[in-house]
């Protein structure tokens, strides 16, 4: 017997926690990775890039390839692949094989996240859809609250391999939980790859996807290198950085749910504009507001609050624009998220090498300002929904 509807969404959030920790954990492991693998911080950050680019490319491809799978089976398989990738990372003998392991992990994550978001939207009444999607993505923010800081702490004492092994175990437990709690969910009509990308031909959809890329690039080029940034501004290291990452994650969790509620109340436009302004301001001020551990904790909390309020109105807007193909546009948005994350390792590494860690938040603020201008200039009239949401 399947669980009640709220519990079903919670189980999807539980899986998202494992997927989110898999994706974000490298930021917390960066000092351990550089020390144990004897590589630079920029090289270690390419583990983020490998995961993210594989996710961005794989999300629409694997969504098309698995389009006729029953949704519960698909979600369980995706979490199993995520677990296997993390186990491979724990056992990888060197940097090259660890890169391959990150790609395997990304394949599972690329399938799970958009499918879970679409299933959550399908199982929820339209007036509560923003909160339902926010709850699934709440699993990602909880990964920032507990997964990344805990991984950082574990890596300091037991090495990065133990951290990856624990994420693998959690992913497999999540797969079992989804199998037991979620009902069977029929696959939608088969959608080919060409039609999947056709859903993104609407210029308004393209604007939202471009905004997502810019916002995620900005956020993660700073987050990935937050350890050297905090060392430069507040002269903190080790466990103190772990505590500060926890502050960011708490802010992110609150911001995610606040963004969902604000979207349900005011629609997507107003919250998205307000949040993007807030992110730009917070980023620009980070070098000035993180000069002591206490100030850094407050700043990272506000930064997480603003950053993670961004996704619920974006996803809500995409569903408004293409109500009959919600799963398709959410899959494209997932690709946009991880394209931004993937570019963050490259762009952030280049900025770090050329201008140092204090330049990172300033470049990030410039990117979010461009995103703000895009949203403000290109917001069009929302088409009235004519179709029910399809889980694709």
Written account of the structure:
There is one protein chain. The protein is mostly helical. The protein has two domains: 1-190, MFS general substrate transporter like domains (Growth Hormone, Chain: A, Up-down Bundle); 192-391, Up-down Bundle (Growth Hormone, Chain: A). It is 81% helix and 0% strand. The chain crosses the membrane at residues 12-33, 39-62, 74-93, 99-120, 132-154, 160-182, 203-226, 238-259, 271-288, 294-314, 326-352, 358-379. One of its GO terms (molecular function) is transmembrane transporter activity. Pfam families: MFS_1 (PF07690).
Low-confidence stretches: 381-392
Q: How many E-type strands? A: 0
Q: Which fold name is given in CATH as the topology of the largest domain?
A: Growth Hormone, Chain: A
Shape assignment: globular
Level-1 CATH class name of the largest domain: Mainly Alpha
Helix content: over 70%
| Major sheet characteristics | none
Provide the CATH architecture of the largest domain. Answer: Up-down Bundle
The portion of residues forming beta strands comes to under 5%
What do the pLDDT scores average to?
A: 82
Q: Which value, in Å, is the CA radius of gyration?
A: 19 Å
Q: Please tally the helical runs, counting DSSP H or I stretches of 4 or more residues.
A: 15
CATH superfamily of the largest domain: MFS general substrate transporter like domains
SSE class:
mainly alpha
Taking the alpha carbons of the first and last residues, their distance comes to 24 Å
Order of helices and strands: HHHHHHHHHHHHHHH
**Domains (count):** 2
InterPro entries: Bacilysin_exporter_BacE_put, MFS, MFS_dom, MFS_Efflux_Transporters, MFS_trans_sf
Subcellular location: Cell membrane
GO cellular component, one term: plasma membrane
Domain Major facilitator superfamily (MFS) profile: 8-383
């Amino acid at each position: 017997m399947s669980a009640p509807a709220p519990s079903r969404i919670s189980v999807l959030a539980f899986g998202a926690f494992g997927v989110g920790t898999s994706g974000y954990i490298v930021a917390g492991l960066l000092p351990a990775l550089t020390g144990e693998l004897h590589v630079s911080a920029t090289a270690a950050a390419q583990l983020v890039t490998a995961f993210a680019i594989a996710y961005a490319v794989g999300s629409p491809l694997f969504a098309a390839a698995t389009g006729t799978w029953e949704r519960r089976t698909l979600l369980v398989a995706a979490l199993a692949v995520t677990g296997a990738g993390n186990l491979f990372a724990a056992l990888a003998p060197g940097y090259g094989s660890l890169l391959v392991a990150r790609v395997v992990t990304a394949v599972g994550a690329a399938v799970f996240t958009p499918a879970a978001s679409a299933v959550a939207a399908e199982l929820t009444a339209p007036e509560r859809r923003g909160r339902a999607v926010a709850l699934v993505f709440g699993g990602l923010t909880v990964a920032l609250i507990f997964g990344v800081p805990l991984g950082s702490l574990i890596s300091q004492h037991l090495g990065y391999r133990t951290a990856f092994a624990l994420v693998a175990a959690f992913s497999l437990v999540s797969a079992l939980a989804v199998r037991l709690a979620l009902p069977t969910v029929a696959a939608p009509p088969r959608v080919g790859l060409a039609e999947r990308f056709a859903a993104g031909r609407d210029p308004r959809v393209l604007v939202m996807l471009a905004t997502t890329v810019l916002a995620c690039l900005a956020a993660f080029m700073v987050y990935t290198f937050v350890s050297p940034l905090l060392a430069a501004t507040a002269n903190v290291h080790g466990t103190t950085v772990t505590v500060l990452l926890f502050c960011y994650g708490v802010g992110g969790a609150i911001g995610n749910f606040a963004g969902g509620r604000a979207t349900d109340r005011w629609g997507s436009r107003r919250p998205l504009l307000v949040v993007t302004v807030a992110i730009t301001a917070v980023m620009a001020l980070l070098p000035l507001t993180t000069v002591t551990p206490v100030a850094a904790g407050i700043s990272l909390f506000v930064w997480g609050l603003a950053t993670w309020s961004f996704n619920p109105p974006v996803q809500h807007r995409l569903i408004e624009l293409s109500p009959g193909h919600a799963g398709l546009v959410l899959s494209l948005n997932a690709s946009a998220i991880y394209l931004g994350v993937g570019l963050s390792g490259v762009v952030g590494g280049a900025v770090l090498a050329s201008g140092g860690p204090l330049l990172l938040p300033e470049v990030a603020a410039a990117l979010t300002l461009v995103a703000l201008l895009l949203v403000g200039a290109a917001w069009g009239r929302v088409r009235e929904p004519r179709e029910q949401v399809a889980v694709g």
